[in-house]
Design brief:
Elements (H helix, E strand, L loop, with lengths): L2 E6 L1 H5 L3 H11 L2 E8 L3 H7 L9 H8 L4 E7 L3 H9 L12 H5 L8 E3 L3 H11 L13 H4 L3
Antiparallel strand pairs: 1-3, 1-4, 2-3
The structure holds 2'-deoxyadenosine-5'-diphosphate and magnesium ion.
2'-deoxyadenosine-5'-diphosphate binds next to loops.
């Protein structure tokens, strides 16, 4: 089944929003298959944001993400990559719809609370970067037949 990489950034952890953010994915019906608190190294931050390395905000982004712990997660479910991006909201929290995580809790693009993979291939790359295979747990929720018709 489809999986995505979700990270609660330092601002989300510092502001006490871990539970609120996890709840959005849990109550949607998605399944948590990996989770850890991480003090992100410079190397991991640079690898994670490699696609943005030429952008003017890259150095600030790496500094931010290494400044305080993050919560790294892998979530699973049908259509989860695109759905998680909708739950998260637009990159700039002022442009994010109310009801999304960024729309409800953020203001500044440099403090937008959460990361979610933007495509299935990106999710595969990011999951492999953050989680060794043995840290991911395959399990079936007892709610499955109440969430999926087939
Ligand atoms: P997203 O996190 O919605 O996938 P992205 O991949 O384009 O957005 O950018 C990664 C992060 O970089 C984003 O969450 C916040 C930061 N960022 C993006 N655009 C920025 C900008 N114009 N100024 C400052 N930070 C920016
Ligand atoms: Mg992105």
């Amino acid at each position: 089944m489809e999986r995505t990489f979700i990270m609660i950034k330092p601002d989300g952890v510092q502001r006490g929003l871990i539970g609120e953010i996890v709840k959005r994915f849990e109550t949607k019906g998605f399944t948590l298959v990996g989770m850890k608190l991480v003090a992100v190294s410079q190397e991991l931050a640079e690898q994670h944001y490699d696609v943005h390395k030429e952008r003017p905000f890259f150095a600030g982004l790496v500094k931010f993400i290494t400044s305080s712990p993050v919560v790294a997660m892998v979530w699973q479910g049908d259509g989860i990559v695109a759905s998680a991006r909708k739950i998260i909201g637009a990159t700039n929290p002022l442009a994010s719809d109310p009801g999304t995580i960024r729309g409800d809790y953020g203001i500044d693009v440099g403090r937008n609370l959460i990361h979610g993979s933007d495509a299935i291939e990106t999710a595969q790359r990011e999951i492999a970067l953050w989680f060794p295979e043995d840290e991911l747990v395959s399990w079936e929720s007892h709610t499955k037949s109440w969430l999926y018709e087939k």
